[in-house]
Here is the input.
Amino acid sequence: MKRKLQSLAKIAGLSVVAGHLALTVAFNLPDNPLKQRMTPVLDATIGTYFSQNWRLFAPTPASSDVSLVVGCATAREFDALAARHQAGEDVGFEGPWVDITAPLWSRHQQARLSAYDRISRAQANAGRAYLQGPVGVETWWKACEKGEPGVCERLDQVLRGFRLQQTAEMVRVGSSYCRSRSDDVAGVALRVRERKAIPWSERFAGIEPEVTEVYLGIYPPDHTVALAPVYRES
Here is the structure.
């Protein structure tokens, strides 16, 4: 009986490992019809718990910096903005705005063994994920462009839910920053700023990098998140 249980345990363990390896290989394969059919399973397993971002490497290396820009609204500013929204005006928070990611990069460059890179990674990764969508979404984009029925609607649902998750993460970061700077914070406004790299062949041509921003809205501050003393004004 003991040997049978040991044999069953070994078979079960090998099956789990083999299944995980098979799903990993399928997840990292180039786009193909089989992968498109397996997308729901791949997203629910490898894409959810074991996803990796390989954009550092060829053929599609990361070619931009993504930072989080935050605006801290006082109670008066937040109420005024809400009143304008109720009046039908499509306006956002007017500022002031502060890029809270770039200073962490500068500090990290001055002290390579510091934790500034770790601190900046959460907000930068959330911003990049918001812009690019979840891992493997390229397959959905291509299927949508080809006009496959129902794919575009499903893609829109996936992106909406995924971006809500990333926005919630950035609200937490923005709340930590704003609440560490002032006690009178009623709203946390967010922007994602992407600064594209200058082509290597034009690095000495005096060209300014292309910068784009996406306004994410203004949200009530999260009072459960810890404050960020790293942002104290010098």
Summary: The mean pLDDT is 84. Residues 1-52 form one domain. The first strand starts at residue 64 and ends at 73. Residues 151-181 form the longest helix (31 residues).
